Each structure stands twice: as C-alpha cells, then as structure tokens.
C-alpha cells in the first residue's frame, strides 16, 4: 500500500433500484411510476464514495456476491477511486439489493429489501487488521457487528479515529450498538438515536449524555431542521451549536444522510473545525437531494462552497 489511506469504511454498499412515484402502486392500480434509475447506495459505501469523490484516499470492506450485480457494486465504488481489494467474496447472487420508492411530491422514501439481505456478514477472521490500521479514519455504519467492533478497537489501539453512522430510530438502542458507541470518537446519528440511546428527549441533553458514553463529538442530523453538534475534544474547547439546513428544491432524499457522513469525513481528514465540517456536510447533502438516485447528485467543491456562500445562515 502506497501512503496511508485517509479513510477505510466497513459496512454496506447497496444496489438501489429507485422508483419515483406519484402514489404507491397497488394490485388494483399499479400506475403512477414517473421515473426510475438504477443507483447505488448503502451508508458506509456511499460515505466512502463521497469522500473519494472529494479526493480522499479511501478503501472499503463489505461482502460481495459473485454475479453481475456483485460486479456492478464493485465497479461503482472503483469508479470513484475507492479501493475494493478487501471486499469479501460470497458464493451466490448479490443480496445487497433494495427497491426505493420515492414520493414525487415530498422526496420521502419507502424501502423494500431483498430477501436474505445481510444474511452473510463479514467475520472478524476475514478482516485484514493491517489494512484497517493503515487508515487515519475508520468509518462504520453498525453492520457486520462483530467485525465492526473488532475493527473499532484495533483503530483505537493504533491511534486512529473511529466514526460511526448511527441510523435514525424510534426504538430502544440495544447493547451491541451501545458497545460500538463506546468505541467511537465521532458519532453522527439520525433522528431519535441519541434520545433512545440516552433516555434524554431534549436534543442538547441527549447529545451531552451521549458524550459521556465514549465519543468526543456527537452530531445529530434532523433532516430539514439541520444538525446539532456537541463536542468535548481532549485538550480542546467544548462546543455546542446548531447548523441549519440549506434551502434547495428537493427531488429525492435517498442517501442524504450517507452523503452528509461522507462530506464530514472530508472535513475531518482535512482538519477543518467542527462548524465548517457541519456546514459543508449540510451543503453537500442538500445539493445531493436535487437529483434522483443515491450517489447521482454529488456536487463539486465549488458548488458546495457556492451554496454555503449564498446561504451563510442556512434555512431559518
């Protein structure tokens, strides 16, 4: 390996079949399909794709089937420059497939997962520890549970940074996720995760309580309401701030959170302050939502900075 990678992701890359509809189909009325695209998604996979698009040296670990869809997943990552040499091959068809129904009027989505989805996760014995530790940042999305926890602990021991994408939830956060949070440096979580993790309903109190569990930075993303950051960096100054969302014409919100995480990795790798990390991530995610399909609307650095300059305070 030439040089040290900035990011290695361990998690999911997915083939998304995206259908834009004016209403959900039924057996009696299957009409309503306005547009469709074969896209690619997955939390950690998309984050690495975005980070690589912005120039970071990235690698990615996941399983991959031996059929054409598996080959498609591999090529999709490689087109952005993501190293796929540590993908773990599985005999049989690709199972990381999701149909995404997008409401044309709001951009909101409904997901339908292929049977057998993530039924054959990466095992700890299949990880290359040297490869994981070659990165400055390890990005996880909580999948491949035992492997993710082992990789997080290796990264902590080697002095690297662990970033966790914790998905939005309305349910209790169970022990495996709690254990992974304890090994995390930067927790970026969707709506409801921090409250259900800590028992605190208020966004600020939930963030502070989450810091007590291990992370030094907690970012709570709340869609159109923007994001909320609390931080307690070692040797640094505590921080609490809200980053408003940017006002754009939304077409499809699929992968907005994953794109936010990828942009945040860029900021971390380049040593930006937390305010700039959050603002840049919000701008990249907003512009991504103006195009149908995950990974289809990743803006350039100039486009993201232009939006940040045009709406310096975001959406009221």
Describe what is shown at a glance.
The protein is built from 10 helices and 14 strands. By secondary structure, the chain is an alpha/beta fold.
Report on the architecture of this protein:
The chain is α/β, with parallel strands linked by helices. Helix content is 33%, strand content 24%. The chain has helices at residues 43-53, 68-79, 129-133, 145-157, 175-182, 193-198, 203-211, 256-269, 274-288, 301-310, and strands at 5-10, 14-21, 33-41, 58-61, 63-65, 88-90, 97-103, 109-113, 135-140, 161-166, 186-189, 217-221, 227-231, 239-243.
What descriptive keywords fit this protein?
alpha/beta, 33% helix
Total helices: the number is 10
- Calculate the mean pLDDT score and round it: 92
Question: What is the total tally of β strands?
Answer: 14
The first-to-last residue Cα distance is: 46 Å
- Helix fraction? 25-40%
Give the biggest sheet: 8 strands, mixed
What is the molecular shape? globular
- List SSEs in N-to-C order: EEEHEEHEEEHEHEHEHHEEEHHH
Beta-strand share of residues: 15-25%
Class by helix and strand content? alpha/beta
Radius of gyration: 19 Å
Q: Uncertain regions: pLDDT < 50 for 5+ in a row?
A: none
Major sheet: order of its strands? 4-1-9-10-11-12-13-14
List the helices and strands and how they pair.
Blueprint: E1 5-10, E2 14-21, E3 33-41, H1 43-53, E4 58-61, E5 63-65, H2 68-79, E6 88-90, E7 97-103, E8 109-113, H3 129-133, E9 135-140, H4 145-157, E10 161-166, H5 175-182, E11 186-189, H6 193-198, H7 203-211, E12 217-221, E13 227-231, E14 239-243, H8 256-269, H9 274-288, H10 301-310
Parallel strand pairs: 1-4, 1-9, 2-7, 5-6, 9-10, 10-11, 11-12
Antiparallel strand pairs: 2-3, 7-8, 12-13, 13-14
Helix pairs in contact: 1-8, 4-5, 8-9, 9-10
